[in-house]
Amino acid sequence: MNTLQISIYTLAFLIALALLFDFMNGFHDAANAIATVVSTGVLKPQHAVAMAAFFNVVAIFFFQLKVATTVGKGTIEPSVVDHYVVFGALVGAIFWNVLTWYYGIPSSSSHALIGGLVGAAVAKAGTSSLISSGLIKTISFIVLSPLLGFVFGSIMMVLVSWLFVRSTPQRVDKWFRRMQLVSASMYSLGHGGNDAQKTMGIIWMLLIAAGYSTTSDALPMWVVLSCYGAIGLGTLFGGWRIVKTMGQKITKLKPVGGFCAETGGAITLFLATALGIPVSTTHTITGAIVGVGSSRKMSAVRWGVAGNIVWAWVFTIPASAFVAAIAWWIGTKIL
């Protein structure tokens, strides 16, 4: 791959834009980690976001950088990557995040980024620029991550109901108010471990294209630290518009339900991150919440709200890809 001639100012601008996306990722997806623990009344909002932000950053010590490798080297051909493609991808992803945050729609930051990469790459070089194996793996988890969340959330709810069948409701509530602190922490750990690495992959892609790194080099530590820090700060500021949708509109949650949803979601995220698959924390926790609700009775889930969320998922990749293609063209004129 030929080394691009990118000025240090353009490189710095694009890295800053990538970290802004990372911040928006944490800001937008804070609801995924804290909605259940806030909506059940276990933690106050300011305490919940502080805890979630802390575990987002602590994830640096628990996960290998397999997701960053998938995003950085496994979605579009390295020869296609330049500063225009990265600019288009980031603008497309940020646009979709801001739009869905404004309307309180729990959408996927991960798939907005993948859609942005696809849109910008196709605008530059056509569909031959895409790496089908990496994209198929990622797109398949649009279905698999909420399904796994649903299954694990349902199983946890059934197991807990069986184990505590002889306990009084007051005792169960008291016990799971404590346990939900653990489950929310684990979910936040999985959120940081999977989502921060997506931005690392983008910056890595840019550094390789600009000749500051090679495909055989390890990811620079300053990239790792800055990405974990940015997503932690984003979570700390929190996207409050989405908390109500996630925590109460889909189904009414009690502490025991919140624990089961978060635990089911955390298991899914840990599994995907270990396999190097960039998944949507939004899809995962939504599936887990629906699983918990439906394990009680199907009517406990507001299927209309869940259906509206699914439509947002369907449009995420095409919408962010479309905006990214336009942003790529604009980038070729201004950068």
Can you count the helices?
12
Order of helices and strands: HHHHHHHHHHHH
Number of strands: 0
Structural class: mainly alpha
Gyration radius (Cα, Å) is 20 Å
Q: What shape does the CA trace take? A: elongated
**Sheet with the most strands, sense and barrel status:** none
List low-pLDDT spans.
none
Strand content: under 5%
Q: Helical residue percent?
A: over 70%
Distance between the termini: 21 Å
Mean pLDDT: 81
List the helices and strands and how they pair.
Elements lengths: L7 H32 L5 H14 L7 H8 L9 H20 L6 H17 L6 H32 L5 H41 L11 H17 L2 H10 L5 H20 L6 H16 L6 H32 L1
Helix pairs in contact: 1-2, 1-4, 1-7, 1-8, 1-9, 2-7, 2-8, 3-7, 4-5, 4-12, 5-12, 6-10, 6-11, 7-8, 7-10, 10-11
Account of the 3D structure:
Helices cover 77% and strands 0% of the residues. It has 12 helices and no strands. The chain is elongated. The mean pLDDT is 81.
Summarize the structure.
The chain is an all-alpha fold.
